[in-house]
Please model this.
Amino acid sequence: MDNSKTNELKQKNKELIDIVIEKVKKEYPDDIDMIGVCGSFFTGDFHEKSDLDLLIVLNNERGRGFAKCFILDGVGYDLYGSPWAKLEKMASFDHPFVSHVIDVDIVYCRAPEHRDRFIQLREKALNIINSPITADILQKSKNYLNDAVHEYGKMMLEEEIGAVRQLSGGVIYNITNTVCFLNHNYLKLGVKRHLEELLAMERVPKDFEEYFNGVIYAASVTEIKETSAKLIKTVKEMYNEIEEALLERPVPTKVNLKGTYEEVWSNWKNKIHYAAKHKNVLLAFSSGVSCQGFYEEMHEERSTASINLMKDFQANDLDSFAKAFDEAMELYKENYDRLNMEVCTYDSMDEFRKDYLGHNNV
Model:
């Protein structure tokens, strides 16, 4: 775009800003605290049909009355307001679209304290972003990754290509946010530059560009689903690597393992053996799934041995599954053995009574 066209756009924007400020001063002098230029005209990444993005900060609901959505010279404009609460949430880095509290050129302030308040929010956001990645940021990235998996799950229930493509957009959105958080970074440019920005970040998942574009370029329902799965998987692998390096693994102790082996016996052992004896497939399956969840939780939260019980489930051979269950229990008991922990077991009711009530109460 030549200089004359650039200058023409800048002049047009100046006139629009002057009109908005005039409107605010005349009709909303106590309702709007600040106006700033953001988006492509802040970053310089604009084109002939770029609209003007304005951050207009409200201090009450009445201020929303200034809003206007219109078309001028073939360009659509959407003037809307953002309350301080929204900016404060942005500054806490709850999502990677925080440019509206960082990349803003202030053109109007109702009072100096409003400028100061905004600058404090900008500094807060930048301090979080420029600090080392934390467990809190890692959890936020995991939340977006889980949302991508959720969108993928919904996609698997659809067969119409339009519906599948729409859901793949949810996968792309959440994966984009995940990668941003894993890089402790934010997106500065418009959507057309998002992939370019992601690829320029420090941490990029393996084959990320191929799978990212593959979802968008996919020509069939099957291709969209398969490529979405690959995209999620490669990001999940990067997440796991970062989590392993960042988070201090818990250590099994007598305190945090106490009663857990006995809990497996109480909740699942007899159910599994009853199910095997009576050929109750549903009971065996449900109990196995529940116990597997317990083993996974203990492995994640207390670093116990990794146990894969459900690999041995066969609906037509519950006896073998019961045997595998007992073997898994023995594997879990090794956590007790390494800590010289005794399993809490009693040979009689009297023995339980004496131990539980105490010798002085017998």
Remarks:
- The chain has a mean pLDDT of 94.
- The radius of gyration is 29 Å.
